[in-house]
Design goal:
A: 270 residues; ABC transporter involved in vitamin B12 uptake, BtuC; B: 258 residues; alpha/beta; 2 domains
């Protein structure tokens, strides 16, 4: 194992994987409790449009990807607040459109040597120093904002109307949370890819719900489970020579199945 | 006339072009306990939301203690509010104490943690509502009547001068309904609150109200008599009560429980 860890690409993969799963785990409980699983799918798929735009313009796909994901997240929120469209319909429209746009951008860029498959399904072993630094910056920013506004985000997750009446700036926090999701989605692309990100945003929170009765307990569980499954999944994928992103997601799914029988509470649903 | 708690002048609200409230003029004095009655879809909840600032009227002006409600809200001086369905997500993993503390968040301010005094105050509210022993329970684990008390305790967390309750007894057993009304009245007296309560249960409200507002898009205020406290109390001895007034007659039905 020590020999393995002396390999630079493995060190970087492990470092990036731990940071990304820390972020996803921290957000995941909120995503589950706020029933935002589908918007996670929407934001991650729309990031594809941004990544492809990066290739077309010849700039770092991270920045165009973040820009695109934030833009689409904000558009979805705006559309459901200001038009008659339902949130899930808005998500369905925007994410398909941005993926289609991504394909057109790729076609126009005439770049044939990019690893599209890596963006779609993750390629953590290809992460370089620059990406590790990017992930680190995003991790610090997102965790700092999440900690700063923790109590307000819990409140709007529990009851938005009451939060508003109590003087909490609900609208701003809703947008903030979407921006945080977009940032996390973007850096998660390195680990599991666009298609599988929603697993990292949803499954840790779902497992935590099986294991904890308290919100803060849920956050700790979901973060721990995400990091553990990522490290375990990476080791397993190395040993079995499986694709790493897919292995991580499968470990998480297996964890979910195992804990589903253990629900600590059955609350009356009245 | 004493201090004015709520003043609406020419307020109109429409959803998708359909008028819900039309040209409402209303003045509620501070310290009053006001019941709001009306048929389904008459705009009762909308009226409350206008007063809370949750809904911006298309026309007219809203003042709560002389200020626009949005301004009071941002200063953490908004009204205490009990929504019609306060527990939208019964499996949400928060404790009773956490829920009551949420009522303080606007006053505590962004990016700051609740301190000891916030905790003490939340426990005091629970004490006032007789449910301090439930502080550590999950919100979804306790009974409907207990939940309602928790949400009233949360509404008191903003240290309001105006308490707004939307159907506080809608999902409760009959005896618990009376308890809640008694409790609200006791709180009003103790904390010197102005109370607005929307209810279908005229009998329960009638015991303590000073005024009854009947609403059906337009508004009708009864100051006692003819249908003041005594009038309502005596008329609700029978099992069914009809009230007719204005252009749109409406009926209020109350089944006796004994």
């Amino acid at each position: 194992m020590i020999d393995l860890l002396s390999l630079g690409f493995l060190q970087r993969a492990l470092m990036a994987g731990i940071l990304v799963s820390l972020l996803c785990g921290a957000l995941s409980s909120f995503v589950v409790l706020r029933r935002m699983a589908f918007i996670g799918v929407g934001i991650s798929h729309s990031a594809f449009g941004g990544v492809a735009l990066g290739f077309l313009l010849g700039v770092d796909p991270l920045f165009t990807g973040i820009g695109f994901a934030v833009l689409v997240a904000v558009l979805i929120e705006w559309a459901q607040a200001h038009t008659r469209v339902q949130e899930d319909t808005a998500i369905g429209i925007f994410f398909a459109a941005s993926m289609a746009l991504g394909l057109v951008f790729l076609h126009l860029s005439r770049v044939y040597n990019v690893d599209v498959f890596g963006y779609l399904f993750g390629n953590i072993l290809a992460v370089g120093n620059r990406q590790v630094v990017e992930i680190l910056v995003v991790t610090v920013v997102v965790l700092a904002l999440l900690l700063a506004f923790f109590k307000e985000i819990v409140f709007i997750s529990f009851d938005e109307e009451m939060a508003w009446v109590s003087g909490v700036p609900v609208k701003a926090l809703r947008y903030l949370f979407l921006v945080l999701m977009a940032l996390v989605v973007m850096v998660s692309i390195y680990l599991v890819g666009i298609i599988l990100i929603s697993a990292l945003l949803v499954i840790p929170g779902a497992i935590a719900q099986n294991l904890s009765r308290q919100f803060t307990g849920m956050i700790w569980w979901s973060t721990g489970v995400a990091v553990g499954s990522t490290v375990g999944g990476l080791a397993l994928s190395y040993g079995l020579d499986f694709p790493s992103g897919a292995t991580i997601v499968l470990v998480l799914a297996a964890f979910y199945l195992l804990t589903s029988g253990l629900r600590p509470r059955r609350l009356s649903r009245s | 006339m004493g201090e004015v708690a709520v003043k609406l002048s020419g307020v109109s609200v429409a959803y998708d072009g359909v008028a819900v409230l039309e040209d409402i003029d209303l003045t509620i004095e501070a310290g009053k306990y006001v019941g709001i009655l009306g048929p389904n879809g008459a705009g009762k909840s909308t009226l409350l939301k206008v007063i809370l600032g949750l809904i911006q009227p298309a026309k007219g002006e809203v003042r709560v203690f002389g200020q626009p409600p949005q301004k009071l809200r941002l200063r953490g001086q908004g009204a205490g509010y009990l929504p019609q369905r306060p527990l939208t997500n019964p499996t949400f993993p928060v404790s009773v104490l956490d829920v009551v503390l949420m009522g303080r968040y606007g006053r505590i301010g962004l990016a700051r943690r609740p301190g000891r005094e916030d905790r003490d105050l939340a426990l005091l509210q629970l004490e006032r509502l007789g449910i301090r022993h439930l502080a550590g329970k999950l919100i979804g684990e306790i009974s409907g009547g207990e939940q309602q008390r928790v949400f009233i305790a949360r509404a008191l967390g903003v240290e309001p001068r105006l308490l707004v309750l939307d159907e506080p007894t809608i999902s409760l057993d009959v005896c618990v309904q009376d308890e809640v009304f008694e409790l609200v009245y006791a709180l009003k007296e103790k904390l010197d609150l102005t109370v607005l309560v929307v209810s279908h249960d005229i009998g329960g409200v009638a015991r303590h109200v000073d005024d009854v507002i009947c609403i059906n898009r337009r508004i009708h205020v009864h100051q006692p008599p003819p249908i003041g406290r005594l009038g309502l109390e005596s008329t609700f001895g029978c099992s069914i009560e009809y009230l007719f007034h204005g252009e749109i007659p409406h009926r209020v039905v109350k089944a006796q429980d004994d």
